[in-house]
Amino acid sequence: NAGVTQTPKFQVLKTGQSMTLQCAQDMNHEYMSWYRQDPGMGLRLIHYSVGAGITDQGEVPNGYNVSRSTTEDFPLRLLSAAPSQTSVYFCASSYLGREKLFFGSGTQLSVL
Amino acid sequence: GESVGLHLPTLSVQEGDNSIINCAYSNSASDYFIWYKQESGKGPQFIIDIRSNMDKRQGQRVTVLLNKTVKHLSLQIAATQPGDSAVYFCAENKGGGADGLTFGKGTHLIIQP
Description:
With 112 residues, chain A is mainly β. In chain A, 0% of the residues lie in helices and 52% in strands. In chain B, the strands form 2 sheets. In chain B, strands 2, 4, 5, 9, 10 and 11 form a 6-stranded mixed β-sheet that branches. A 5-stranded antiparallel β-sheet of chain B has the order 1-3-8-7-6, with no helix packed on it.
């Protein structure tokens, strides 16, 4: 039972580069979300989706784009990476967005 | 803005003792609360949750208490083991049917041998 799968696990970028963090879930969850985790800051919501074709901004959306073309996949795009985007990124999904979230194992991103 | 917070960033307990991790919340509309455990290098893992129509819920070696009067949530871990060493997060939903969970900053539980 795979659950929520994130790739890659580690990534190093140079300032200005773009990349996509992948997230897939096999639980048929309608709600999917992206969080970033920084030391002492807890988990902060970047973007979320309540179903295919529907996305919305969270607390810290600037510099990130998302799309939801299928129920299973919810990729996060960094358009032009900045050092402030150095963080650990978690994808999470749930049946109902306001209840228990299932998390992936995270992507550790460093922007130089 | 409204937020979920924890009283202590670090909690050190002796192996075998009971641990109590506290959390304060400020959103009166929140009707669902949850605790996660995060081990180093891993994603948060669900421990236990509770709805606002309950005061207490028990799991295996864990109990969550909810005091809506003072907007306080606690996680009790019985007979703490070395494997309990982790960062613990509380989270709340936004209430009113709105989507999303708001997380506290976390408490690092350290187990002393």
